[in-house]
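Box 3.1 A note on notation
Throughout this textbook, protein chains are presented in two layers. The first layer is the amino acid sequence; the second is a token string describing backbone geometry. Keep the layers aligned when reading.
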Amino acid sequence: MITEESERAEIVIFFIFATNIAPQSKKTMILRIHKEGHRILIGLTLGLVVLNLLVFNFAEAFLPFTGIVSAVLFLLVLQFFRNPLREVLLPDDNVIYAPADGKIVTIERTQESEYFQDQRLQISIFMSPTNVHVNRNPISGTVNYFRYHPGRYLVAWHPKSSSENERTTVVIDNGRDEILLRQIAGAMAKRIVNYVQEGEEVEQGEDMGFIKFGSRVDLFLPIDAQIEVNLGQKVKGNRTVIARL
């Protein structure tokens, strides 16, 4: 869950864009950087500064090139750790919101063998390196189950990645139904972060974890859930309705 401490720790940058039409048309965009990126961005900044100082002192002719490469690299990493402020517009215990940004790559009926031990509807969201990688609670409720599984780093769309890759499994009970959410590391993602604990009460839309540098999120829903997305559709966390219970 988001704490006051983590909120204070977030880096907030304000960009004000003023138009020439009218003062009321001013638009504010807030770029929030997720706390998981703070150390990486600080380390990267220091490393790039040292690199450019060395180039300046010993190979000044290459400084424009290294400067451009450094700026591009920093911006790429910066955008990866962005954490847009997205509150759930219409909280509803019967609505499953997308837990991540990405593309729907699987919609199928399958056997869930870790927790439910029965047939479930599986919906998988693939997150590319350019997507927001914050994971959010798709519903409110009690965390009935949490497990971390070390594993391999197959590409996220590999059929065996759901059972063999590094992953976490979270089951949330809204009082009527249980849904299972699985974070899966991919070939680039080497670390999964999850903030929930068994027995904890979580709120729909709050941050529940982060997967660094590309991966996948699987949802396992009751068979009678009404699916609201299509294969290949792009979705946004806390914005796109995945299904209705």
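The chain has two domains: 4-80, 95-244. The helical segments are 4-9, 38-58, 63-80, 161-164.
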